[in-house]
Amino acid sequence: MSQAAHRSDQRPADTRSSPRALRALGPFIRPYRGRIALAGIFLVLAAVTTLVLPIALRALIDQGLISSDPAERVALMQEHFLALFGVGAALGVFSAARYFMVSWLGERITADLREAVYRHVLRQSPAFFERTQTGEVVSRLTADTTLIQTVVGTSVSLGLRNSIMGAGALLMLIITNPVVMAQVLGALVLILMPAILYGRRVRKLSRASQDRIADASAIAAEVLNAVPVVQSHAAESREAARFGASTEQAFRTAERRIRARAFLVAFIITATTGAMLWGLYQGTQAVMAGRISAGHLGQTVLYVILLLGSVAALSEVYSDILRAAGATERLMELLAAKSPIADPARPRALPAVQGGARVSLDHVVFHYPSRPQQAALHDVSLDVAPGETVALVGPSGAGKTTVFQLLLRFYDPQSGDIRIDGVSVRELSLHALRERIAIVPQDSTIFSASAMDNIRYGRPDATDDDVVAAARAAHADGFIRQLPEGYATHLGERGVRLSGGQRQRINIARAILKNAPLLLLDEATSALDTESERAVQAALEEAMQGRTTLVIAHRLSTVVHADRIVVLDGGTIVDMGTHQELMARSGLYARLAAMQLHDA
């Protein structure tokens, strides 16, 4: 079972979803109060117009058909049919206006909700994504918001319209035929009781169904992002079977929901038909006995149909509302997620610098949230002077990448402090901190956009000439110009049109263009061949001039000219010095260098 499925099974909210959950949509609805009021006016007008139809029909039957003079009868019938047409035309106009307004509101509110959830998720720390799969988030942004759109843009409007029509029909029945009204109320009780009882079951199954769909989406997103790995292990059939099993589980859950809802619909339709026929039978008996007119009977039958039809529609709407309530809960869970990394209430300003930034780590202790018993860094202190190049080396898991993550404030250390130009990173806004840092990650990231836009990503206001200059410095200009459309070439999802080395050079160009005082290089040349590595290394050394640079490298040949080399092991600094000093001490650094020389 996937992690997402396991989490979904543990959610207690499956049994607590209720229409009250839709109250959480209030902040997204309030900005459009004017349009909602206008939609309400059209809705009421459409419902009232519908309620006028039986009265117009009664007048047609009782007045247009009783005259003995054929000419007068034709004139009266024409008059009443014109009146009926006028009512129908008004109903058409009001219904169209209502449809437009509520559909617009559904689209607008859903778009705002998607944007708010997406923006909030983007601001979460990496700890959030350690426990939440991206596929599940995508499912909530698509499937769940679509459910809410259906309710806000359709179901709520239908529910309100049918509520008004049902209440109006009931009032007219009380006025015109109290006996039939009493019978109809009895039918309503019989219809509403199972609807309420079964609503709880549908509510639970709706939430479970949405969770199963999210599980399948999470599996698909994970596998599609790693298709080359899947294919290289000939695991297509295995992954297809895993997705199929998850999809089948979602289908079985949906099947139970559909079965419960179908049983409820069958009961409602049967009960509605029985009540309508009973009312019609009683009315025909009253007409035959002369107690009411034929027009009165027709009016009563139409009001009974309107009332029971409204009740049946409301039960359908209620089911949709229950599903939307579950979807709203899931989205509100995302919006309620609080990132432990946030801007301070009163952020400090960073001092202006010319060239490099000063970096200080003071007795830093850090544990990853997912591994609280194991220290990733333990009592690490380091001071990097402006313009200095410092390399971080050591075996895998030594804590090198963790230093970068703390500098970017993806996490906060449990103790100790990290300062940039004398200011603690906790006292800086995240934007100000990260604007001062450029990074070339080990796993090169390419967005589904043009080469020009990918390089410009870290500095959106850069000119085309600036982008080209950065690409030249990163030795990327040559291969970019050879692409079908040059810098305008769309690079595809995750840069599938480029080689690993080309993707890395795009990332290096992006960092060079940003021109930040602090440059972080995380295995920046790991994906390059020897010839490209030499060229890019020369470009990086030129780009590093005058600014502070921290370099993570496993290939020690790339850091021999660093001003200082810091050796990490087990989350602590075990040695520090220049390449010559460390080799002379015959410590861990010398052993790592000897191993690489032997492997070469």
The low-pLDDT segments are 1-16
Number of domains: 2
Instruction: Please write the string of helix (H) and strand (E) elements.
Output: HHHHHHHHHHEEEHEEHEHHHHEHEEEHH
Can you list the strand order of the major beta sheet? 6-7-8-3-9-10
CATH topology of the largest domain: ABC transporter transmembrane region fold
Structure annotation, total helices: 19
CATH class of the largest domain: Mainly Alpha
Multimerization state: single chain
What structural class results from the helix and strand content? alpha/beta
Give the CA-CA distance, first to last residue: 43 Å
Percent of residues in β-strands:
5-15%
* Helix fraction by DSSP (H/I, runs of at least 4): 55-70%
What's the architecture of the largest domain in CATH terms?
Up-down Bundle
What's the CATH H-level superfamily name of the largest domain? ABC transporter type 1, transmembrane domain
Which outline best applies?
elongated
Over the alpha carbons, how many angstroms does the gyration radius reach? Answer: 35 Å
Overall strand count: 10
Average pLDDT confidence is 79
List the keywords:
six-stranded mixed β-sheet, 2 domains, 600 residues, four-stranded antiparallel β-sheet, ABC transporter transmembrane region fold, 10 strands, disordered N terminus
Question: What does this molecule look like?
Answer:
By secondary structure, this protein is of the alpha/beta class. The chain has two domains: 22-336, Up-down Bundle (ABC transporter transmembrane region fold); 359-599, Rossmann fold, CATH 3.40.50. Helix content is 63%, strand content 10%. It contains 19 helices and ten strands. A six-stranded mixed sheet has the order 6-7-8-3-9-10, with helices on both faces. It has a four-stranded antiparallel sheet with strand order 2-1-4-5, with helices on one face. A hairpin with a 7-residue loop joins strand 1 and strand 2 (375-384). Helix 7 runs parallel beside helix 10. The protein is elongated and about 120 Å long. The protein starts with a helix and ends with a helix.
